[in-house]
Design goal:
mainly alpha; Hormone receptor fold; Rhopdopsin 7-helix transmembrane proteins; three-stranded antiparallel beta sheet; two-stranded antiparallel sheet; 12 helices; 65% helix; elongated; GPCR_2_extracell_dom_sf; transmembrane
């Protein structure tokens, strides 16, 4: 967060009697976050000031007695003070940055004396009045908040990954569970695994080195990590869409084999996200190749956001349609009890997931990205990290068919063990 990294240095400059030079790196790329605009502003101001200082150093000084040549241009970490002769003064206005300074039109003055520039009068802190957003205590509290969030979603994704791998193993090991429905479940589980892995990869690439300035970070590794993360998120939503489409197809085409549609489902679940991310990557490289592509303020973010909203909207329509068809089939006297139980078993899981996964995303999509940041982070990181565990619980661990198959194989294994023990005991007795 660029703003919170900047404020402690500004506080030192404002409070100190001597100006403190804040170590802003030279600007290499455009800012990627709204908060980084503060850092970018000071980077640009410092770069312009240093260029003036460099040009002055290359210009020969006019002849005159030592100490009477005036004060040279100086960057004090906040403002650039242009050169003036001895005995004259210079006044500058407070930096005009919203949400950082309360006063942007107040003037600070410095006099040029024989011993150099005088102290700013009035001091920056009194003249500009820094907004109460980033004292040392606030910065530490903010850092502690994000550390807590990271611990929570790390535990959530770890729990989800363990549950998802176990669920995939169960569906793969038992032959009677091999069917189109469970194959779609496995793909859905895999999309959650990719999403969890993408979060860990993104953290490792972007935030492993605390000395890196994230406002100017722009490497191939971080862009690749963000692209993989966006693909996994898209695949996650589109496999949820496939789950809804499959349920609707099952209700509409009762007597049609569903295996003929499996490749279409795979094409939608993995192919559409891949095509979308490729378009997004090419667009960013061509028109907005700045930072790590992790900003949500760019217009090109809609290349990712629009397909996700489309998937949620279509899923919501499927949700309404499936609810209507299910009510009709359950009331129909022509449907056998076994079919009704099959419909209910699959429907109760899918109908729960569709609104659960999409509602909060739609709500936040209606507001700008800088509104409700804490709530957005909590829903998308903390609660979202446990969605994989919830999916494995609904589709596998609480599935009556899976439970019956596990009990049947457990009974067979116990009978086999008892038989082996009996045979060994018999052999020992006869021997």
């Amino acid at each position: 967060n660029g703003e919170y990294w900047l404020v402690p240095c500004l506080l030192r400059s404002f409070n100190a009697r001597h100006p403190t030079v804040c170590p802003f790196p030279p600007p290499k790329v455009q800012a990627t976050h709204p908060d980084c605009s503060v850092v970018l502003y000071f980077q640009e101001q410092e770069a312009e000031c240093l260029e003036i200082i460099r040009s002055e150093s290359q210009t020969p000084a006019p002849p005159g007695p030592p100490g009477q040549q005036g004060c040279l241009t100086e960057w004090d970490g906040v403002s650039c003070w242009s050169a003036v002769p001895v005995g004259q003064s210079r006044a500058v206005a407070c930096p005009d940055i919203l949400h950082v300074f309360k006063k942007s039109k107040a003037l600070i003055q410095r006099n040029c004396t024989e011993s150099g520039w005088s102290f700013p009068s009035p001091p920056y802190y009194n003249a500009c009045e820094l907004e109460a957003i980033g004292g040392n205590n606030d910065t530490e509290a903010k850092a502690s908040y994000f550390v807590t969030m990271k611990v929570l979603y790390t535990c959530g994704y770890s729990t989800s990954l363990a549950a998802l791998f176990l669920a995939i193993g169960i569906f793969s090991c038992f032959r009677k569970l091999h069917c189109t429905r469970n194959s779609i479940h496995i793909h859905f589980f895999t999309s959650f695994i990719l999403r969890g892995a993408a979060v860990f990869i993104k953290d490792a690439v972007l935030f492993s080195d605390e000395s890196v300035d994230h406002c100017t970070m722009s490497t191939v590794n971080c862009k690749a990590a963000i692209a993989f993360f966006q693909y996994s998120v898209l695949a996650n939503f589109y496999w949820l869409l496939v789950e809804g489409m499959y349920l609707q197809t099952l209700l509409l085409l009762t007597f049609t084999s569903d295996r003929r549609y499996i490749w279409w489902y795979i094409l939608i679940g993995w192919g559409v996200p891949m095509l979308t991310v490729c378009v997004w990557v090419v667009t960013r490289m061509q028109y907005d190749n700045h930072g790590c592509w992790d900003d949500h303020t760019s217009l090109y973010w809609w290349v990712i956001k629009a397909p996700i909203l489309l998937a949620i909207f279509v899923n919501f329509l499927i949700f309404l349609n499936v609810t209507r068809m299910l009510a009709q089939k359950i009331r129909s006297p022509d449907i056998s009890k076994n079919y009704k139980q099959q419909y209910m078993r699959l429907t109760k899981s899918t109908l729960l997931l569709i609104p659960l996964f999409g509602v909060h995303y739609v709500v936040f999509a209606l507001f700008p990205e800088n509104i409700g940041v804490d709530a957005r982070l909590y829903f998308e990181l903390v609660l979202g990290s446990y969605q994989g565990f919830l999916v494995a619980l609904l589709y596998c661990f609480l599935n009556g068919e899976v439970q019956a198959e596990i009990k049947r194989n457990w009974g067979k294994w116990q009978s086999s063990m008892e038989s082996n023990v009996f045979n060994l005991a018999t052999q020992d007795f006869t021997a």
